[in-house]
Fold this protein.
Amino acid sequence: MTVERALTIEVLSTMLDALLFFMPGTVGTQEGGKVLIFSVLGLDAAKGLSMGILRRIRQLVWAGIGLIIMWRLQAGLRPISESTTVRT
């Protein structure tokens, strides 16, 4: 695959995501968009579907990492109890 074709796929994918932003969680739009783009460019539609699924998995992994980091940060922030306050 050439750099130009990869950029074309990415630009068209970004445009479809922007057009279909109102779909909750972009359910199915990412995968279907990749299939459409690959078909229009004369590539294998199955590869487009697998690319869309892999992108979705990547997003879920990064979201999970972010949630774990937030959980760890919040777990470390405990409220100060009255017994540990300094009295003067």
